[in-house]
Amino acid sequence: MSAPPPTPDKGQDYPASLHSLLEESAFARPEGPRAVADLERRYGAQVFADALFHLTRLEMDGARAKENWTAVLAHREAMAQALGRTVGLRTAVCDYFTSQGHELKNPVVIESRLLVQREDSAFKDELTGIFNRRFFNLEMRKEVARSRRSGMPFCVFMIDGDHFKAFNDRYGHQAGDAALQQLAQIFVASGRVNDQVCRYGGEEFVVILPRTSKQNALMVAERFRRNVENHLITYDGKPIGSLTISIGVACSPDDATGEEELVRLADWALYRAKTGGRNQVSADTSDRRMHRRMAVATQVEFIVPAGDGADYVCRAADISLGGLMCESNRPFTRGAEIRVNVHDPSGGDPISLAARAVRSMESAATDLPYRTGFTFDAEDPARLLALHRLLERLADSHPKPA
């Protein structure tokens, strides 16, 4: 899998693009330590990692990149003296990493403009033209690493269109596509230059806000919400209706520092915004659930409808009176209905409950690569009461998870 196109001007205070830095004399002339020290003073060691990624697509941390960059400048000077002529920066980089660094085994010569175009197509959503989920996942890893190195905060938005299915049903899927395109445009226009807006899937969007405190993120999120609320969706040249959005906000390091946990908490805050009435922003990531969630201390059997789940492998990660978290080998679609049998270790008939998928996401935490949150059908009070009594009994007989 190739890495996403570099976005140094989003993460550092570079000029308009890294390309302009490459053309500066500090990059273009082999001035050795003075040039390297000047660049580090102005932009930090990360500039060397971004520069080498731009030229080679090799990823490395700032310290290692600085060492390699110094070596490349010295190698370029030696090549120039041996050949009796000026040696281009890209030529020196290629020769160094193939003959001395040995990190490029079979380099391919390609026009950088074409390379960027091809990378862009792999990381852009076809419908809206903004970044896709694949880009978001990779960029989140980078942003977490940047934040840990620099100590600077950053935030994540999880955005969902309110009652979007009803909008689709009323106006048609083509109008729904037009609405998604317009939402994407509003988000990009409402954000700042550094913010990275991505389509997560369906009517859901995510935004990465580098070097942003929670207070500032909430102001940006409110601007997103207000601008959508004030926009009239148009289709085929005519206004057809309006939409609102709900936004969940999570920030590092205030809420969490890991990428998966930040996304989970932003999703939880989004749930708070939805259940709080929609068309609002929530940063409530406290995870104070309506029901206590506990590690599974008994057998839970999953029954997926025939035709949908013959090859599903499922395992319960935790459970509460409101629902459970399922680990599986395949993702569940949002709204998917299954039946769950919770067995009582002391014997008797299992408690059978209908459950509906709320969200499925990738996870590297276990051998099963997907995690899906399910909610139980609240219209069966007798079975929920039985589950409540079972969970209370299990909680009393097992230590609480840390």
Report on this structure.
The model is unreliable at 1-13, 23-28 and 398-402 (pLDDT under 50). This protein has three domains: 8-120, no CATH class; 124-282, Alpha-Beta Plaits; 294-397, Thrombin, subunit H (Beta Barrel). Helix content is 43%, strand content 20%. The two termini are 37 Å apart. The protein contains 14 helices and 14 strands. The chain has helices at residues 8-11, 18-23, 25-28, 33-43, 46-56, 62-83, 89-99, 112-122, 133-150, 164-171, 173-190, 214-229, 259-275, 381-397, and strands spanning 154-161, 196-201, 204-209, 232-235, 238-242, 245-252, 281-282, 294-295, 300-303, 314-319, 323-328, 337-342, 351-362, 370-376. The chain is of the alpha+beta class and 402 residues long. Helix 5 crosses helix 6 (62-83) and helix 11 (173-190) crosses helix 12. A hairpin with a 7-residue loop joins strand 13 (351-362) and strand 14 (370-376). Strands 8-10-11-14-13-12-9 form a seven-stranded antiparallel β-sheet.
